[in-house]
Design brief:
Chains A, B: One of its GO terms (molecular function) is prephenate dehydratase activity. 2 copies of one chain form a homodimer. The first copy, chain A, has 310 residues and is α/β, with parallel strands linked by helices. Chain A has helices at 14-19, 36-44, 64-71, 111-121, 133-141, 154-157, 208-217, 251-263, 292-306, and strands at 4-8, 29-33, 50-57, 61-62, 77-85, 88-92, 103-106, 126-129, 147-150, 161-167, 174-181, 193-201, 223-230, 238-245, 264-274. The first copy, chain A, is elongated and about 85 Å long.
């Protein structure tokens, strides 16, 4: 298997910064791709060992391009997640003053995160979208726009300076990234893990989604993300991308997935992997009766009953 | 109240075409705005009677800009919805051949709907985003790009011709638009209505969302949309935009909303309005025991019991 990681490029974006926080990234060649789709296709085609892409953002929610790529096509699996705090700098050519700025640029995903700042500080500036934040910085370097919103780390790469830093509309603006590879055995549980699945309902009826969520709730499993995505069969037809606390090797999680497999039209397992938000000491306590030991004891008891040995 | 409707402009986009299908639009001045936010702000400020904006799309799902504007700020209410089938035409300057096209443009929301067509027919064309599909057509007219994806109706307005029509990646590609005004009494039920609400959970615990959905399921109410949106309090903090079948004057819907009001941190009512997808003859039959008559009879029975007259 080639020892390279594809990532959503170009170089000098938040994605590359987040990827470099993973210890395993140090031993791989990191190859930028022009889109989430092309990075994941490189994994599917065997050109890259894994791909690193954004999947959720505390301002915009689930990143639909990534979710849709994981929902459809050849199955892929999530092996790692990284959380990165996002704050923008306003990058300009040296000497530019705030009052000189008539045009600003950045990737469209940056816009909701800098909207209020723009309204307050540059209400008349014209916004033009760039292919990425790094590409916006390059366009400022070339003189096409007056200023770009990007990570402060991009300034030196493009010979720009940061006129303002720490720009973000929401407190705790974070983006979640995932490392995605071809399906294989998930890593062993760490004690603070997360399991991702996609669910398709068998039919649409009152209580249908409530019943799916009941498979988790019945086993005391908390959900961390529920994002509906269109199936492509017209308005109102959705599948559900769900992140649940726990690992598929936890008995409560395995039993919930079996329950879903029985009642759903289709279930796609997207992986069990370590949580980036908390460590094993910080996970919420299990509800009574939902530990592996209690599942095992209950199974023993039923087996004894079936044997007449209760 | 000024007799004008704000809409997401510019002129000549799918939004304007959808708006003109509403009979009441014929008697109003229709004023294009540069963004969903500015159109809704015009309503909040009393400059416009109502605003017409896209809210859901069968390819992309809920349109997050619109949902986020309805979730936050001064309360607004949905009065009408319109469904429009979306197919793109490839607009070019007269005489341009497919092989001449090096650059294409459109609003970013068009991209997922034409992606496969582009891959198959213009794999080397460079994509540049435009502020709107109509604006993309204007930029082609000015010679800045070779071709634009837009509604076929935009061709004549910009002196272009349609090289291809009926381009869409998903069958039944539709967009749902809503007419939004300041809160007032909802229109009377038509027999095929929909109710929109936003729910904030009181706390995050296993089964929390299942319990919210149970308020609908217990009363036999089917959901048509469930879209999670970040609350802005960091990754994993979501509120839920829900469309449910029925009208707030239906007893089952009113009782479900009361149940949600009791258990949620906050409930925002976004309106009850006629469904655009089906008429009163086509709505799904009610589950046994969930009609207004049965609710009334059950309330009578409890009152009689409380009186000792059962």
């Amino acid at each position: 298997m080639p020892a390279s990681y594809a990532y959503l490029g170009p170089e000098g974006t938040f994605t590359e910064v987040a990827l470099r926080t993973l210890p395993e990234a140090a031993t791989r060649e990191l190859v930028p791709y022009v889109s989430v789709q092309s990075a994941l296709d490189a994994v599917r085609a065997g050109e890259a060992e894994a791909a690193f892409v954004p999947i959720e953002n505390s301002v915009e929610g689930g990143i639909t391009t990534t979710l849709d790529e994981l929902v459809a096509g050849a199955p892929l699996m999530i092996y790692r997640e990284v959380l990165l705090s996002i704050a923008f700098a306003l990058l300009v050519r040296p000497g530019t003053k705030l009052s000189d700025i008539k045009t600003v640029t950045a990737h469209p995903a940056a816009q909701p995160q800098v909207r209020n700042w723009l309204k307050a500080n540059l209400p008349d500036a014209v916004w033009e979208s760039a292919a990425s934040n790094a590409d916006g910085a390059r366009l400022v370097q070339e003189g096409r726009y007056d200023a770009a919103f990007a990570g402060e780390f991009a300034a030196s790469r493009y010979g720009l300076e940061a006129l303002e830093t720490d720009i973000h509309d929401a407190e705790n603006a974070q983006t979640r990234f995932v490392l995605v590879g071809r399906p294989a055995r998930p890593a062993a549980p760490t004690g603070a893990d997360k399991t991702s699945v996609v669910l398709w309902q068998r039919d649409d009826h009152p209580g249908g989604l409530r019943d799916l969520l009941g498979e988790f709730a019945t086993r005391g499993i908390n959900l961390m993300l529920l994002q509906s995505r269109p199936t492509g069969a017209g308005i109102g037809n959705y599948c559900f991308c769900i992140d649940a606390e726990g690992h598929i090797s936890d008995r409560r999680v395995a039993e919930a997935l079996m329950g879903l497999k029985r009642i759903c039209l289709q279930v796609r397992f997207l992986g069990s992997y370590p949580r980036a938000d908390v460590g094993p000491e910080e996970v919420r306590p299990l509800l009574p009766g939902t530990s592996d030991e209690e599942f095992a004891a209950a199974a023993d008891w039923v087996a004894r009953c079936q044997d007449g040995r209760f």
